[in-house]
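#struct-pred

JT: dropping the chains for the assembly here, can someone run the whole complex?
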Amino acid sequence: MPLSDVMMIAGDTSRSRCYLQALCARRLFPSALLILPSRQSRPGQIAAGSPGTKPVACDWGVFDPSVSVEETAAAQGLSFAAAPNGDINSPELREALSGHAAAVCVYSGFGGVLLRPEILACGKRFLHVHGGWLPDYKGSTTNHFSALEQGFCGASSLFLTADIDGGGILLRKKFAVPGDVRLLDHVYDALFRTEVLLDTLEYYAREGKWPAAGAENAKTDHYYIMHPVLRHVLALRGDSKKGDA
Amino acid sequence: MRYVYTDGDPLEHPQTYMYPPYGGADFLAAWRQDRLECLRDIEPLRAVSTDIPVQPTFDAAWPDTEACLRILSATAPTTFPERAEETIRGLIRRFEISKKLPQTLVPPGYSLNRAPILAAAPYARFAAILSRRQAVRPSARELNCLLKVNDTVISLFRSRRGVESMTPEDYDAMALGLLGELAEVDRLLRERPHAVV
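RK: done, full complex below.
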């Protein structure tokens, strides 16, 4: 089913690949697709052949992290175009977006990039799925922190605002911590977000309105990118080969 | 395997910590070795006096960041005035974003205002504060910051940058920051992991 008023703008990251493969599997086709170019490796992009590039079976089909956004779009006959540059905050990109009628844009950019007020005010609403359970886990690598502190992961959909992770929560879900947390970054975080994206868009397609989680997105302290030592604690905790003296 | 996060100039070229490679148990062993070596190296530089110096109050030191951190590093976290609690939380946010501390405290953003602290001592004091807070109220968010602050302090120490004015009490604070970090990471490693799929 084409989503006539929902387009997508994406960098070719693991998460974007998962999103588009899932959307196509569920036949939720964006009205347009703009691909953010990247001449060199950007955060969120996985190197070919590294762990986490093997296909993973999931509810909607098979996520193959090695298949690029462009390859999926071409295989599905989706029309797509390269964005004028890889900077979501550039005037050229605002100009490119203004040429599309869709009111909502599914946004899946490169890691570490925040949307500035100018692009947020361009007239489109940017649908984003945060990789964490809001409002408790805002910021970066939040699934790593919730896995470490409370033994669960999450994903929450919202429309982006100038307040980081601060928009009204549309839909959110909790997930069990995967057995191999080393795959959180490029596989499971993408799968969790994708499931929430699918649920959000399917609700919209079915009901004609966006869901509302009914939970206040209260102000909470942000988490910041997890230090490698804590990542290793998460991966090795309980393992007999853990790195203690 | 070497622990690489204490290499280089952390103030000029801060670590991003993005998508680090996985090193298994060897990585944690390398991190532990890095910390223990530093503790060994600073042991001769630490204070031997047990006299407790009389310090001005936190409010009197405001808004000089270095002075405030010096006071708070010698203060029990449970007795922090509310303003101090908000200041520490603000400095955690600022350090996590910029990997530097501002010379002057300007809430709510605690912006660097193009005047970051370049001396090592305030970072050592900040680490000591975070370490003492961990002992009272463990927090993964604050431990995360402590790990990065300790990386900064050790980098500065090893490269002899910004250490000219370090006092024996500053090295004491540095040691406290490292010991608290080691203890808290060890505690987390011993915790039973939650159920997984």
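JT: nice. The CA atoms of residues 39 and 118 of chain A lie 25 Å apart. The first helix of chain A runs from residue 14 to 25.
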